Amino acid sequence: MTQLTQTTVIGAGIVGLCTALYLQKRGVEVTLIDRQPPGEGTSSGNAGIISVGSVHPEAMPGIWKEIPHMVLQRLAPVSLRPAYLPRFLPWLTRFLANSSQAKAEAASIAIHALSSRAMDYLQPLVSKAGANDLLRQEGSLYVYETPAQFAKAKRDCAYFARRGVDYRIVGSVELAQMEPNLRPGLAGGVLTAKAGHTVSPLALSRALFGLFLRQGGQFIQGEVNGFLTDGNRVTGVRTDFDLACDQVFITAGSWSRLLARQLGSRVLLDTERGYHLQLPNPGIELKRPLLFAGRAFAATSMQGGLRLAGTVEFAGLKAPPNYARAHVLARQAAALFPGLNTENGEAWMGYRPSLPDSVPVISGSPHFKNVFYGFGHGHLGLTQAAVTGATLAAMAAGDETPVDVTPYRIDRVM
Hints:
Distance between the termini: 40 Å
Radius of gyration: 21 Å
Structural class: alpha/beta
Largest sheet: 9 strands, mixed
Number of helices: 11
Strand content: 25-35%
Helix content: 25-40%
């Protein structure tokens, strides 16, 4: 059985949804395919932050000094399952190679080019979907507990300054005034004033999906297991049946690596398994998202309570979740919020698709003229989703793109 369609977008997380909507804006008929319902994968479990001020790659200069301490503790903010080490070593080697001053600076420029345009491209979609009640723009606040952490953060603000980010250093007294639920005596913080957040990532994705359907889009829940090709073109996608198509967009998050390999592109993509704990009755409410770099998690007040999201675990796509990593977030948060009620927390785990240079792939295929890729956004999927979708749609149409796409090529040295 062959069903005809014009364009197929594989992956219905936030990046795929935004890509589909920007394609529709250009008059393209779109079919979305995903193994899960739209927005219910990794996109549903993030901290909800639209981090327009993000400029720092994960591979910052000097990171190598911190890795042994981070990975050798079972419930440390960053952990590696020993059995996964052989598969992880190539990614780790390239990650460390990207932590030089020059490469971190180049990555910072590429990250900022996307993140700084986040609201410019997300807000029109949200407004059209009738979902403005799901967005807030109160900034985000990086919080530092110790003078040493705060001093390092202030040095790293040089990246903000070079990119022109609107930021402000917040002292200990002002920090307590801005977020009175924090325990007193913390060293300070850094406010990025233009950051936004959503009070429900899943509701936001569902609203965008509703707009997609109202505009004539089709959705197929199924798993893509291959492609039909003719020369340098993909002519169809194989699911439970063959779906003919003129263009293919691969926005499947951590599963994009396997699909790209089938189309001749090998990408050093790995999965940062992230956890969250949703506290339904926290007893406190935050004015804005708070990020705790020293403990590697963020706290955001949402419709369903307080979400504690963070930690990094390298264990691939097949290992079972270790939900103790989610529950340890309650202990971390209780040390920061004296009035916090941590009872009845609901644990979740998802897969962040991460590349060793912290720069996503937004690219045409070097092998197939009608294949386009948008994946590898790491911790910034929600932030960079809409500008990625607009860029891919413009690229496919042969138009000028919102950003220079050179740094995001799939065939770059990562």
